[in-house]
Structure formats: structure tokens, C-alpha cells
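This protein record is not my work; I was only asked to verify it. Would you go through it and say whether the fold makes sense for this chain? Here is the record exactly as it was handed to me.
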Amino acid sequence: MRTRSSLPALAVLLFAASWLGVPAAADTVHVGDPLTVDAATPIAELVANADRFAGQTVRVEGRVTGVCQKMGCWMNVADDAGHTLQVKVEDGVIVFPAEAEGHDAAVQGAVEILDMERDEWVAWHKHLAEESGAVFDEASLGDGPYRLVRLRGQGADIVMQ
């Protein structure tokens, strides 16, 4: 008994899909360790209840709104409402690609809280402004308290489409 090859049918199907505008599978760039936390914690909930999450390994998902342009050592991830969380990694161990900005990402890391004095807060924001080429305005930093909630990044999947 003869069997027919399904190759011609597959070719027709792929051609039809491309002709109809069916998008190809998105490319995902993975950096760091594999993501092992299945459920994402909303960024707004994490920031609002940081003390409850301190030290825990969590997963967050959102749009990449900024990446360190010098070493790829941090990236900012924001939810649809604009709540933003920084993901910081050890320099050179994990490198976030600069072209990740504007793309969706799932990130896993340990919640870290840094309470700072005003001079530390000013130095931190001045450093961020210098890295991004923004104008630094110390008066906009307010009177405190000065608290940075971020993830100590372990791994990320960035959808580059």
C-alpha cells in the first residue's frame, strides 16, 4: 500500500497562513535562570505590599519601559496602569538586551527593599538620569521617605516581536 506524503499539504497550509496574515510565533529571548514561578504577582500589589513580599521569589509580567544602556544590568517593567518595578541584576552575570524596551517580559526575582537617606536617594536618581541622558531635577524628589522596591533578577523571558 502506498502512502502519500503530507509535505505538499503542509506547504499549502503554510503558504495560506502567511498569505492570510497569520503572525509567525513570537521570538522569546531568555536571560538568566529558567522561570520556575508559574503565577505572576501584579506589580501594583507587590509595590503596595512590599513588606509582605520582602525576600520572596516572585514572577511579574509587563512591558519593558527602560533598560540600562551601559551594561544591561537593570530593566524597568510596567503594568498597564503604569506601576513600574525595577529589576536589577549583578553586572555582567545577566545582561538585559537594550532592544527589549517596548516589549513584553516575564521576570522572576527576589523582592528587595532599599530604604535610603535623602543623600543616597539623590545620588541614585542622579545616576539614573546620567545613564539615560535625562535632566536631573533634585527638587522633584520630595521629602521622603525614600524607599526603592525592586526585584533582584534571576531570569527573564522577553517577547521580541
